[in-house]
Each structure stands twice: as C-alpha cells, then as structure tokens.
Amino acid sequence: MANLLGVAIFALAILISVSLHEAGHMLTAKAFGMKVTKYFVGFGPTVWSFKRGETEYGLKGIPLGGFCKIVGMTAQDDDVDPADEPRAMWRFPVWKRTIVMSAGSITHFALALIAIWVAAVSLGLPNPKFPTNDAEIRQEPAVISISDCVVPDSTPRACAPGDAASPAAQAQLRDGDRITSLNGKPINNYGEMLASLRALKPGETAQIGYVRDGQPGQTSTVLAQTQRPPIDDPKGAVGPVAALGVALTVTTPTRVTYGPVAAFGATGDFTRELAVGTVQALQRLPQKVPALWTAITGGERDVDTPISVVGASRLGGEAFANKAWLLFVTLFISLNFFIGVFNLLPLLPLDGGHIAIAWFERARSWLYARIGRADPGRVDYLKLMPFTYVVILIGGVFTLLTITADVVNPITLFPR
C-alpha cells in the first residue's frame, strides 16, 4: 500500500512539474503581450474548464502532461485571426521568443534547484569527500569490522569449514576498533595498515595497537594466510600474504547537512555534478538501446539503462515505502533536470528546436544585410516537417522501449 501511495505521489509531482513547465511558457508569453488562448493540464477530452480574459484554462481526461496555445508560434500558422496578427509570437523580437520558449526548461531547473537546497538543509546531500576509489579508501582511518574467517584464496566467498578463524577475533578485537600501530609501527590510515601487513608473513605474531571508545589498547595475534595481488598492482599475479581477518569500516559520512546559507554553495556544487552527469547520460542514450531490448526480451535489466516516467514513478514508490526520502527527492531532482536539458536540444518539436530556428533567422538576416542582399524572411517550418517526424518517431520508439522495460522488467533498488 505504501508503495502504491509513493507511486501516486511521485507521479503527481511529475504532473505538477510538467504543468508548471507549460505555465512558464504561458506567463512569459502573456508578460510580453503575446496572446495565449489555452492552458490545459492533461490531454484528450476536456473534463473541466473556464475562461478568464482571453485564455481558457482547464483539465483534460488523460493526466499525462499539459499544453498551452500561444497564437502564431510560427509564420506558417494558418489559424491566426487577422485581429491577432500584431500579437502573433513570431512577430516578437527573438530575445523575447527565446525567453518564452526556454521558460519551460527554466521552470524545471528552478524546481530542481529548490529541491536540492531543501534537501541540503533537511535530508543532507551526498558527501563530496566520501571515498569512491581505492586511493581515497586507503586514506580512511583504519577502523575495522571483524570477519568470521580468513578465506585462503583470492575469490571472495562465504566462510567454509576448514577456513582459518579470524586472527583479529582471536585477539579480542571488536567492530569499530581503530588500528593505530602494527609491531610498533604507527598506523595513520587503512592504506598504511595494509602496507604494514604485507611486510609481515603468514604465521608471524603481530603486536597490534588500537583505540576503542577513545581508550588505547594493545593485543597480539598470529596472522593467517590468504592470496592477494600486489598493493600497487591490483591486476597483478596473486601470491600468499598475511591476513588479519578484518575489513574497513568507512567512517566518512555518506551525506552532509548544511545551514541555510552554506546550502547555496552546496546546491551549486551538486548542480554542477548533476549537469555533467546529465550530459553524459544523454551521450550514452544510443548505446543503451540494446540493453533495453535485452531487458524486454528476458535478459537481466542493467541498472544504468534509461527509465521512463513509469520507471521513475515505480522507483519513487519504492523509495517512499522504504522511507528513503533522499532517494525520493533525488529522483525528482534528476528527472526535472534531465527534462530541462533534453527540452533545450536544438531539435523540433522540442523548445530548443524553436529557439535554434529563431536565432538562425536572426543570424541569417544580419548576414544578408551585411552583404547587401534582401532579407530571406522566416524559415519555412513545413519544409522541416520530415525531419520533425523523424525526431518524433525516434523519440516515440525510445519512449515505448523504456516504458515496456519498466513494466516487464523494472529496475528495483530494494530487494524483496
């Protein structure tokens, strides 16, 4: 039940985002004096509407987006009343049309930024200092968790009868202890602990200094043997090395909460990372089509494959049911940012396509004026329709693939 409620809440949040996207177009168009005749949430048959001034507002029967009708978006629009010609959108300066057409994406960016700031001061944002690679992990304090045994080979597996008991457990070390010395040699981080261990031999007795609950202690144990590659060459040949039977416990927090002022800087940093990730995701989209097809036809679903609104809503429902609030908010942030960037791509029928054409017309008129030729006028949108249909077809097929994959083989983050 909680999962379904989360799905509904997330889907409603997406619908509100898209509705605000269209409201951004409408409000900026009205502010510049363009005529907006319709603003509706949803598509299909009208469920309810009212008219205020020259604009009809309402709700459609299929709640999958929304739209607003701005008179004369292109010079080829043939449904413009002669009385409205001076207010047709295409007659306005290019900078005003750019603001109107980009207002939808700006709205998505604004929603994402607000949500990031709110998360920064309440839930916390991912800690940029959290270790993500071997070099960073080795700089962590040598805080340990005790293994049940020492697996004698290099392949990780569960403990089996005959495996050596953990030397650390035999030395009465505990989870959360921090190793401070090994045979008298000071240990400042996990990397130094590994290096000191590798300098010893299996079967050798190690004197261990540690700190527990702020109090120092000493113990000793006989080291076991396992197989590992060289520290400086993880892909090198494995060989016998001494083992203490411990694993690293990362003490750096995974997320950081900020004050209201510091949250602005954190929001900027997070947004930069999000922008880079979004661009990289867009670049990888063509490569992910085979993986989507594999997921649809019965293969394993790659968690790095794109998801549709359906998939995002399902993940939002899982996050809600498991009280993973940061994940819920992050999904909302990522989706809004992605839609904002995607909608600015210079392709029709996206807003970015209309913006690109407007500036192309402006640049072409400027160039023709400089070389003494007559202004060629407006771009004929009708000649661009074949390209537009191709974009719509590709987008439609990709959307169908992602929705199908999200229905028959969805990504799940919480095992059941």
TrEMBL record:
One BP annotation, GO: proteolysis
Main subcellular location: membrane
GO cellular component: membrane
Pfam families associated with the record: Peptidase_M50
MF-aspect GO terms: metalloendopeptidase activity
Stretches assigned to the Peptidase M50 domain: 10-364
Keywords: Hydrolase, Membrane, Metalloprotease, Protease, Transmembrane, Transmembrane helix, Zinc
Signal peptide per UniProt: none
Transmembrane segments: 99-120, 324-345, 387-408
Bilayer topology: Multi-pass membrane protein
Subcellular location: Membrane
InterPro entries: PDZ_sf (IPR036034), Pept_M50_Zn (IPR004387), Peptidase_M50 (IPR008915)
Cofactor(s), by name: Zn(2+)
Family in the record: Belongs to the peptidase M50B family.
Protein name listed in UniProt: Zinc metalloprotease
Organism (species): Micromonospora arborensis
